[in-house]
Amino acid sequence: MSTLLFPLREKPPRPSAPPDIRKVRIGLLGAGGVGQAFLQLCRREREFFLRRGLDLQPVSALVRDTSRPRQGMPPPALLTADPLRFLKCSCDVVVEALGGVEPSRTLVAHCLKARIPVVTANKSLVAAHGAELSALAQAHGTRLRVEAAAVAGVPFIGNLEARPLAGRFSALQGVLNGTSNYLLTRLSEGQGLEPALSEAQELGVAEPDPSNDLSGRDSAEKLALLLQRLCSRQVDTAALEVQPLANLQPMDLQAARLLGGVVRPAACAWLSEPPSPCNHRAEAIQAFVGPCYVPNGHPLAQVHGLENGLLLLKDAPHGQTAANLFYQGPGAGCEVTAATLLDDLWESVQDASDSRPASQFPAPQGPPATLQAPRTPWFLRLKADPAELDDILAFLADHGLHGRGSHAAADTVWLLTSRASRARVEAVGQALAEAAQSDILPLRALEVPHGC
Amino acid sequence: MSTLLFPLREKPPRPSAPPDIRKVRIGLLGAGGVGQAFLQLCRREREFFLRRGLDLQPVSALVRDTSRPRQGMPPPALLTADPLRFLKCSCDVVVEALGGVEPSRTLVAHCLKARIPVVTANKSLVAAHGAELSALAQAHGTRLRVEAAAVAGVPFIGNLEARPLAGRFSALQGVLNGTSNYLLTRLSEGQGLEPALSEAQELGVAEPDPSNDLSGRDSAEKLALLLQRLCSRQVDTAALEVQPLANLQPMDLQAARLLGGVVRPAACAWLSEPPSPCNHRAEAIQAFVGPCYVPNGHPLAQVHGLENGLLLLKDAPHGQTAANLFYQGPGAGCEVTAATLLDDLWESVQDASDSRPASQFPAPQGPPATLQAPRTPWFLRLKADPAELDDILAFLADHGLHGRGSHAAADTVWLLTSRASRARVEAVGQALAEAAQSDILPLRALEVPHGC
Description:
Two copies of one chain form a homodimer.
Chain A lengths: L21 E8 L3 H12 L1 H6 L2 E9 L16 E2 L2 H6 L4 E4 L7 H10 L4 E3 L2 H17 L4 E2 L11 H5 L9 E5 L2 H11 L4 H11 L7 H5 L1 H15 L18 H9 L2 E11 L13 E11 L11 E7 L11 E6 L3 H18 L19 E2 L5 E6 L5 H10 L4 E7 L2 E6 L4 H15 L3 E6 L7
Parallel strand pairs in A: 1-2, 1-4, 2-3, 4-5, 5-6, 9-12, 9-16
Antiparallel strand pairs in A: 7-8, 7-10, 8-9, 10-11, 13-15, 13-16, 14-15
């Protein structure tokens, strides 16, 4: 065939570039667990990156207290508690692992204004100020990468930002907090919440102060981050329905198993319409965060222990089959987070000389999206005599809540119900408490999505 | 804090570019199912891409026979059977959906030499000639994208190529062929292979000629593609251990279920050491393709019907926990493949003006990797009297194959065994046939990986 092809103008091969080693001066904001793991990783993978033409050179690390004992990893000369001194060090890229909103926000903003790309593992910062910082980065021709801030072990955020059709979905359902998933996994094995938490802290898989994990706040911030980066939607985490892990007992997890499911710390959002870059109206988003009954056929049921998982539900237009995407992998841990930060750093350095758009999804503008509580099935625990189950079911049905399955033991009954709003479930719970002195614990339940 | 920051030289925001609409002239190689779906998608998503600054303009489609009836989608003026005429149309990007090796290889090579980026859904082409074509693309400063050629509905190949640490793994285990997974799912529901195949053909989820799916060749080519793109390893698919679906019966799937697992069309490879761009030696790769027992705790057990799944197993160096990655989503289908081609096209167009390296993994060089058959557990079906189970187990144990579970029905026994090589299992099968006139069907079995 090649004789046929003469009209195609063949261009000469480009001369291959010599394998220059490029020095990358790295500024590190924070040298706690993640920051130290990052420095260790830079040292361990030094040769690996040199072979790829990159000489990783940490030049400065801003910490709150330079005298705090650290495992010998950051050379003392690297450390400074003085933001001024940190910012005077010329950096090619900044890794933000301080956590919290300030001073991260101010420091990151200054770096971006100086056209220094920033990679961050800080979900609180991105959930609250990611939109303004991304807009700032874009205005100054640089970029804020956040892959390490949610489902840290699975790279997908930057990829979906770069692929318009794959990045289009109608709902997301995730297990975004490894610590609380670990605790619920231990509960399902019969362990109580308090001893499971102590054990997790000993193993280093729960923070000394685990309140952000237990309260659901960590998951809520990650959900806000994902909606911001993948759908151009800003949500106010304070307005989200967020339920804590508290009050769950091993027998709840056993009942869930007998009803064909598990309990997972879920973070879910349904979009009223597919996101679009030209669609900045604050459409209502239905969302919740909290422990949730997940039937065994649902992909999130397979996400055990410290793992994270994320299901992106896609509408099936034009009679096509649904094309859901599911990601599963380690959710956090200092080493995993550090590796993702270093991959983000690598991508930032590749970007430096090009003009790729930051994302197909522009930073959200305007007021936060309106949040609504979704109608879902429910998994209810009731203090009640199992002999009264029929009466209870009739009572619930009278209030529009239909039983779909039940399990009873001693003085407790667990029910799976039809879909209802939280308001309805709470009203029914109130009525039941008045009618039968019964105490009710309502957890939301997911359904096996179409196409799974 | 901002008063502290005066020494940081703040650079003025870059003026934001006007929203120019850029015309992209698309050449399409092939207008079969995928090609037609691609053209339909371009038309359906025209406004969506215009809002992102891209005017999709299919300008020519090379087909084998212009007179073949098509669903009215490609305007006849677009079609040509003349490669010369096709190549005369100036294209900005070429979408290859011809399938097969020639003339795809020649045409794609000519486009790449003319610095036209190519996106392809053609696993046969990439498995056999991807290395040479990628090297050609790199030499000419352009790129061959292959996201649509394996696990088409889940974007991960390009992403792992761009992320050095996430892209480092020690083994991969996949369900890469949706058609055969659909057939095995139907078998597990009691359907026979022949009727399941007819049904699949009626539903359009199996080709009129399904031999590449049933034989395992399609999976083998996809495995070769993944090893090439993600590990810089070339494998000769003819040298792979590939087993067909044939001979499986619904009762095998029922036995698997009773033994706590399922049967999946697997494609697996274990690397003897982590891939490295400076490591072009042809280390042995242990690999197999074929129907395989998968225990329920393994992520691939959850990959039903037409879905695909891919587990990347990561070593856990330095006492860290394993950080396996798992992807699940639609494996194929014309619409899914077309959407992935269009996302690849979008990425190709973004690339045009930049100098991002094609991949962290250079195209494989030198001879193909040496392939070895791995030692795995086995799922054996034996024609035998269940009363003789103890004798059979003793016989197998004498030959170094230890039973780990069994199920018996009528004149058949199913066994799960300890790890062994295929050679050993076949020798034992031979000995058993001679000693007891028993007939043996050996399927490989996977184990639940560490960290799952």
